[in-house]
Every structure is written in C-alpha cells, then in structure tokens.
Amino acid sequence: VEGYKSTLGYSSQGSSYATRNNYLDLDPTYKDRFGRPLMRMTFDFPDNDIRMSNYVCDRMEEIAKALGGKQYAVSRRKKGWDSVPYQSTHNTGGAIMGTDPKKSAVNTFLQSWDVPNVFVIGASAFPQNAGKNPTGTVGALAFRAADAIRNQYLRNPGAPLVQA
After folding, report:
1. Segments making up each domain of the chain, as ranges
2. Is 15 a known active-site residue?
3. Residues 22, 43, 90, 96: which is the catalytic one?
4. Which of 10, 81, 151, 161 could cysteine-pair with 109, CB 3.0–4.6 Å?
5. What pLDDT, in 10s, does the model give residues 35-94?
C-alpha cells in the first residue's frame, strides 16, 4: 500500500516521418470475396525514428532517476514494427493532401486530383502523425471539405475545387 501512494507512470509519443520505403499498395496474393486485391501495408520504423525514440527514452530515464525512482522500466523501440503494442494508435497516411497532384492524392479540400467527384475524408490525408491524437484536425478538415462540397462543388458538380 505504501508503494501505491508514490507510484508514477508516464510515457512519450513521437512522430514517424513518411518515407518512400513505407507505403500502401494492392496485395498481389490476397483478395476479398469478390476477387479484388486487398490493401497491403509495407512499414517499418526508419532508423531515424529509432534514434529519436532512444533519445527520448534516455531523457525519460534521467527524469525517473532525478525524481528518486527506485524501480522503473523503459520500453525502447526496436526495429521490426509490430501492431500488437499499438492498440491505441493513430495511424495516418495513404491519400496524402497537398497542392501538387504529382506529389499528393487529394487537394486541400480532400478532393481527389484524378477523380473530382471523390472526396477522401480522414487521417489518410496526413503524410505522418505528429505524435498526438489527430481527431480534432480530422474533424476540422472534414468540416472544411463538407462546407466546400455544399457551397462550391454542388454548384458545379465534377469540377475541381482547386486548379492544379
């Protein structure tokens, strides 16, 4: 009971930057019940993410020691991504938002560059997650897209909201 009164737990979150080695594509082997290919995710933490994580772990360990911690555990990130520890993760990306159709899938209203009547709403628009819950930003972008659909797109269906 005495130890319970002086227990502290803390954690950190960081970002994982987009790289060309991490991507989504159509799986050549696995299909859905209609025979269409399933999405495949190719991902592993880049070396820089591991270095950033280890740096933060070192700082957190220093804090634990400075607080007089008698018992503590540091969970260091390792190469080889595994979804099991990520039961509360905020994965993003897949349909990146941008101003150049050669470098992004959707414009700033989340409208597809290639198919103007398709709007992709969600965290897929982000190239990476800054390390925090993206729900508020997703909601703001969804509201912005809905407003543009209602007040601009529906007046001229099929037209892009942003000229490339």
Report:
1. 1-89, 90-164
2. no
3. 90
4. 161
5. 999 999 898 889 998 999 899 999 999 999 998 888 888 888 888 887 776 666 777 888
